[in-house]
Amino acid sequence: MRSKEQRLEWFRDARFGMFMHWGLYSLLGRGEWVLNREKIPAAEYEALADQWKPKRGWARECARLAKRAGMKYMVLTAKHAEGFLLWDSKMSPYNAAQRGPGRDLVAEYVDACRAEGLRIGFYYCFMDWHHPDGEICEHDEAARKRFLDYSRGCVRELMTNYGKIDIMWYDCPWPLMSPERIEADSFNRMVRRLQPHILINDRSLVPQDFATTEMNMDPKDGQAWEACMKTNAEWGYVDYGQPEDWLTSRKVLDMIRHATLHGGNLLLNIGPTPEGSMPEGAYKMLLPIGKWLAKNGEAVYGRRVRDQKRYLDWTMIGHWTRQGNTAYYWIDRWIGSETVIAGFLAKVKRASILASGKPVKFKQVGDRVTLYGMPAANPDKNVHITVIKLECATYPHQELGMGRA
Ligand code: GLC
Prior knowledge:
The protein is an alpha/beta fold and 405 residues long. The chain is built from 11 helices and 15 strands. 44% of the residues are buried. The chain binds alpha-D-glucopyranose (GLC). Alpha-D-glucopyranose binds next to loops.
């Protein structure tokens, strides 16, 4: 088995991935918790399994959009809490191959990721509203054993039947809310035995390869870190949402910037439609991001070291990322041909517009750097974020403090 750092290499470079919440709940269009929130009778909910007829080519469409958006990996909900298995499973007949879809959706997803050159992650939710032991396992030891056998069997299939898998993304082990009760160690040993290169998240309640935060982007110290974020009302597809619910491309780029500065990744969620199309809002949000990253990727991709002591501060018009001795100044409020960067503690050797490579004139007096002779209007007509690349003689950081001088 390669060392943890070696296994994490691609992940630390990748920065940006797509989370996909897709299952029977997508048919109802009210998010992945609808079964629980509306206490839908089992028979009524299970009938969805026969109604579900995703279109052929869905996976390729989703993967292609992820690729065009500049994403490097995907994580699909192979099983969410509803308990429906998206793959051809021997563990339960409540699965995509034997019910409505009539196909192994996980296999289609894996093929699509490979075709687009994306790394492959499986999301697996321990919590299960379908399995007869899914809730009673809390206080019935025989049920707990059966439930874990089932869960292990499911994950074993995922780790065995689809070739090399890059990420095991567990979720919520409720009601077995301790590593002992979910038998996290033996679970993870099995996963690593079957997939020696895999990265495992922290949701089997023990730290593994990377930490996750959900709907918050506070970096985790001392560990590889990934933030997962919704992009509209729910994780699963919603058809009642307002178009305004979608994050803007600019907002997502700011999240990417923040993740970059702190050495983490952004796993951005999309809930495909029941047919497996990417919603229109996803295209609107993601295509400008991909276009922008194609020109400005240098400010984003590649391993970054989190440096809490020597930080780059906020200014009135933008924020930063950094790589070695180069600082990338993301101006998202363009104020014209001239602007000042204060408290800048490195000698600037060269300034340029990252997207075009055009040099930018500058003068530096002490820790004040004036950029001048730039275009009057923001050169980035796409999302109006222009990155100024500042190549410095030493490691760039800033000190502005709270006072006047
Ligand atoms: C929340 C939601 C769950 C979703 C997860 C993703 O926990 O409840 O449905 O899958 O976030 O991290």
